[in-house]
Amino acid sequence: MTGAPRQRSAFLSLLPWGERRAISGALRTETVGGLVLLAAALIALIWANSPWSGAYETVRETHFGIRALGVDLSVGHWASDGLLTVFFLVAGIELKRELVVGELRTPAAAALPVVAAVCGMAVPAALYAVIAAAGGGSLSGWAVPMATDIAFALAVLAVLSTSLPTALRAFLLTLAVVDDLGAILIIAVFFTSNLNFLALAGAVGGLMLFYVLQRRRVRGWWWYAPLGVLIWALMYNGGVHATVAGVAMGLILRTKSDTPAPQGRQPGLEVMSAGDRTAHLLRPFSAGVAVPLFALFAAGVSVSPASIGAVFARPEPLGVVAGLVIGKSVGIFAGTYLTARFTRARLNPDLAWADVFALAVLAGIGFTVALLIGELAFPDPAEAAHVKAAVLTGSVIAAVLAAVLLKGRDRVYRRLCEEEDRDDDGDGIPDIYQHGGRGAA
Fold first, then answer.
1. Which of 147, 236, 254, 255 is the most exposed place for a label (fewest CB within 10 A)?
2. What distance in Å separates the CA atoms of residue 372 and residue 361, rounded to the nearest whole number?
3. pTM for the full model?
């Protein structure tokens, strides 16, 4: 006697209402921040290639610091080591939230996006290594094409006025969150030198105190802000990239609220968890200030026919471009498709595998973290400039290809979004969640 066939789970179907609200709020902020990021990158490129390029270099290399904390950095390094810590703090909170209450909380649900993200990091790194080795180049930049810039990708969607169903946007966000974790692990393991174990011990002690304060439900920014700055400074002086402190504190913050919000209502700040409250307050600064300022001082590279030619003539920048454009697309799509086949996950019938491939191409926009890793992997300014130009070139190519693919399906996306957002009874909850519509749960 044979059993009933196993029910195949739906992939990229309608999200639960609570999860959709949380993700939509985060994506709105990231979209606005992405537009600011795009403007900052354009300003950097124009400034660095204008008659005032000398002023750009002067400002970027100006040093100042906090002597009491043993920190003396250039403006460019303050942007990458300091401001990006806030970005990674928010990323750490997002990752913790996904692991505790989000899409990654169960192994079955986490398998597909995690495998897709890992493949989306491994294939670009391998492709870079093959191209660099074949051309006799340096293998130091293998990690550069591994990261996805969610803000830049959302900015491209906003510029194109392209609607995407929330499930596709959530999948892209999950890929980016796992990417960020992979990036911070790579930075911590492979770009750490001259360790000061006393300072690192102090940073670990600070994180333990941070953990105790969280477990005891201690509230008040006046406890955490000075402690966070101290942990950051100790991490920097310990020889580990200071942004690791941000993601560590983000993972420690609690993501479950002790006081649930009234049913059917958006939780206010007073009932949010510590992690959600911190992310709510810091995400606008991270997306609208920290990341754009980093881009302003990282994306200013000389653009000329010779520099563009070098991107496709030298093995290192060519490996970065190929990794972002080809490696990301192949890795994410193959990882998603094969995992869905082996886990019996059924694709949402309103979508097609072409939509997943378009999303994989869009994930090839690797800007912020790719530029950061490029600076760490190539300390020589001339080599770093070539790699930065490659990151910009690869990201633009991926954006253009994704735009073509997504615009071809825009009519389908608009119809699905209209179904998701329709609220004929005006109660603030889309009808699809109340009247048994597509994927209602």
1. 254
2. 21
3. 0.84
